[in-house]
Please model this.
Amino acid sequence: MRNKVESKCKDTPKVSVIMPSLNVAEYIDECIQSVINQTLREIEIICVDAGSTDGTWEKLCSYAENPEITIPIRLLHSDMKSYGYQVNWGIREAKGEYVAIVETDDYTVQDMYETLYNIADQTKADVVKANYDCFYTGKDGRKVFQRIELWQKDKLQYNKVIDPSKIAYLYAADYSIWKGIYNRKFLKENAIWLNESKGAAFQDIGFAQQVLACARRAYYSDRSFYRYRTDRDTSSMNSLHGLQYSHQEFKRLLEDETLFKKLVYPAGLYRHMVQSFHGELNKLLKATDYDVHSEHIEPYAKWFVEQIGQALALKLVSPADLDIYYQYFQMIADDIEKYAADLKQREMLLRENTELILAKTQGKKTVIFGAGICGKRAAAFLKENEREIAAICDNNRELWGTHKYDCIVVAPQESVKRFGECIYLIANKYQVEEIEAQLCDIGIQKQSILKFQ
Model:
């Protein structure tokens, strides 16, 4: 391990930006340039590379040695391939009042750290976070973005200081550690670190849980500053070991007495645990052709069922704490094979519907009926598959004439006049039959109406 390039200035930075890397040469330029070009100039960049062999290290060196770059860049070369170790080392080396983490296949918006630091400075928050955008690059080379909002159902929680320590929802929903900044003194005083296991998957779970448990002043901005890439093949999102890694992290939190005592609100821990279990199980069932006895599934699913079941029995967590995930957990615990079979059946129906949509929209323009979350997903799906969207149709008068997802929003009656020959794609989870009847009543042929599921 060595420190390759020292800081270019001796002033105490406001934010230390930690950038762990391993073989991301394809993305590293966009990532580091987005940090170098931040409007907040009182920052330092700490790059911790785990032995890249694809030219990443050489690119980092070129940035650190460039005399025209005034932002101080320090390079650390790690012999350990562990995302947790890399980030922890960066935190230990950091000099900033606050620290931030950027995954090096992502990038940041130019005013991210100026905005978040100013909030932190004014509010004296332990942690300041914001929304973010997921994105992938379409077949035409254009980026397709989807806004991820933390407080979709309770927007009054934005833009104010809150105590996050006993808000169960946050433990399950606020698990992304790279969308904000953390007071370095707060992390140090509470001994908050990532797990230093091998690899680069799920090691942020424990860090996020500790931050929520120990923080008393958290601030969530309703803006979006971070751009999270979802189409990288080697991403942990696409791993067959998701359930194993999730098990590894939660097992550590439950069995390490020092960590567990720090987690003052067990209900929050178990809510995140059951959510992670459900999500990773679903992904792996699809990846293994719904084989519940797969080595990637069976031992870890058994552990999760036992641990969550025991916590419910001991009333460490209640069904209400787990929200909708309690229902999913019970189905899995009662009969995991039936759960897998039902999921497979739903997936087959979804695939058939997807194929129908793609066939019907080939060479035709589409009007999406629904400007909400489902409409956003439908627009992203059509763009990804190079289908042309004529407009968004919605019954909400306040949206008429505005733009959603790069498309004009129109009233149903106007849509029929202007786009009567288009395919209509209903993107609404709860009012499908009503919308279909409405479209038929105003003159759209039933064979031209599809449902996005």
In short: The longest helix spans residues 336-361. Residues 253-334 form one domain.
